[in-house]
Description:
Layout: H1 4-16, H2 28-39, H3 44-50, E1 77-80, E2 95-99, E3 105-110
Parallel strand pairs: 1-2
Antiparallel strand pairs: 2-3
Amino acid sequence: MIRPTLIAAALFAAACTPPATEEQPQTPIADAAQDQAQNMPQNAAEATAQDTCGASQYAHLVGTNIAAVTLPADSGIRVVAPDDIVTQDFRPDRINVILDDVGVVLRLECY
Length: 111
């Protein structure tokens, strides 16, 4: 017959033992995701400098009136005039065509 004191001692010892922890090795996929997250632009200036939206392919439009421009319909391009209200969400893959008050393209930005 097992004595109650031995059972109590075994339970006490088990309760006081810290749980075994195993460090999970990082996988190459996790490393790549971490590297990519570190390289992601955090604001419009960084995104534009890195050309994350591909705005450089439309650089020839700067100085052109927007009325003379044809842009692809579903390309993620947003045209912004001086008094336009736009969303504040940060999307580094979106091209923003910034116009002056008469419709001339001033600059292209990624945000």
